[in-house]
Specification:
By secondary structure, the protein is an alpha/beta fold. The protein has a single domain, classed as 3-Layer(aba) Sandwich (Rossmann fold), CATH 3.40.50. Helices cover 33% and strands 28% of the residues. The structure holds S-adenosylmethionine.
Amino acid sequence: MSIEKSYNSWAEQYDTNENKTRDLDKKATVETLSKYNFENVVELGCGTGKNSEWLITKAKSVIGLDFSEEMLNIAKSKIASNKIRFQITDLKKPWPIENNFADLITCNLTLEHIKDLDFIFNQALQKLKANGKFFVCELHPARQYLGSKAKYETEKGTEELEVYVHHLSDYLDAAKKNSFNLIEINEWFDNRRENEVPRLISFVFNKYGHQ
Ligand SMILES: C[S@@+](CC[C@H](N)C(=O)[O-])C[C@H]1O[C@@H](n2cnc3c(N)ncnc32)[C@H](O)[C@@H]1O
């Protein structure tokens, strides 16, 4: 099944299934982004709006982009605010956002489905204002090496989605190639026991030197 179709069928259960990755991602997002100020936000792969709900409490405007109509329908049904607009978009194609628009672009649990990181960082570069921040929080590469991937249960069994492994160097190379400066990197654990493989990795990149 295509990634888009899989999310259309997962949408109804996405918020309610047990999902430690989803829950830890929310914690990582709030803890990391609470210390920044931002007005105009673009959220990549916003899904059912789990993080959009928090982002609109801090931002003046949020644009949520996602290619799954059903995920967006859930988001729209949960969030009634004139601060937010959701738009069906395939992030692998040029984004329907004005250049130099955003103070913050966020991308959570989405890049495992996108092979070409360079394209994403290049679009982010164009859409951010100078000194804008790009926050990325994804399944940790070490988890990906162990075979972890987005999946959900159906009547027919477990549906595993198509994913791409991104090494730490892939993120850093794409950022460097697009003139981003790494200002924060964090690893997120379920319990932070000794030798535990982290579940998530997050980065905050700064756009600098471009107007
Ligand atoms: C695991 S969900 C994460 C949703 C939300 N960011 C969260 O943290 O709960 C991944 C989302 O990325 C979206 N997605 C994956 N590939 C995409 C693409 N190429 N273009 C747009 N959306 C995409 C899916 O439709 C899905 O809503």
